[in-house]
Amino acid sequence: MAIDKIQSESINLADNFAxxxxxxxxxxxxxxxxxxxxxxxxxxxxxxxxxIQFNTxxxxxGSGYDNSSNYRFTVPSGEGGTYKFYTTLNFSDNQNAEKIxxxxxxxxxxxxxxxFFYNDNGTSKAISSNWGSGNVTMVLxxxxxxxxxxxxxxxxxxxxxxxxxxxxxRYSVFGGYKIIR
Length: 181
What we know:
Elements: E1 33-37, E2 42-43, E3 50-51, E4 56-61, E5 65-66, E6 72-74, E7 81-92, E8 102-109, E9 112-120, E10 129-140, E11 145-153, E12 161-162, E13 165-166, E14 169-170, E15 173-178
Antiparallel strand pairs: 1-4, 1-15, 2-12, 3-11, 5-6, 6-11, 7-10, 7-12, 7-15, 8-9, 8-11, 13-14
């Protein structure tokens, strides 16, 4: 027996259904969305909070990411809502001396710190390259923008760096997408 019309009071959502037609009005696309990576190492200076210049786009659905001058995601017109952002950074003292004391990672919203992640190696400072990663959810309006900043401290080098692309590996990435609610 074919069902011509389903009424909400007559369907058991625990049952399994095989649809042969088209379902419309369900789901949605998590766009705008983007991911970018750092194409080369970026020196940031010992203790200096510095914007990371993710300059190579993997994708940019909605054209919200600027990979050439501001290195940030700006919410396109009409696309306000809830967004999820993520980043992974590879910190290095740039001297192979294995001496990084602390690492800081920031998500900035409209030019101010919004989320902060911190890790301290203590007195041992025995790691030369350290992964730092973070993710954050933000409610944004059209024209709000999000950037990633970082700092490295107590290194053996005066010019510690964030490692970029090398030998087919993306060591430092930044991405985000709109959450469909």
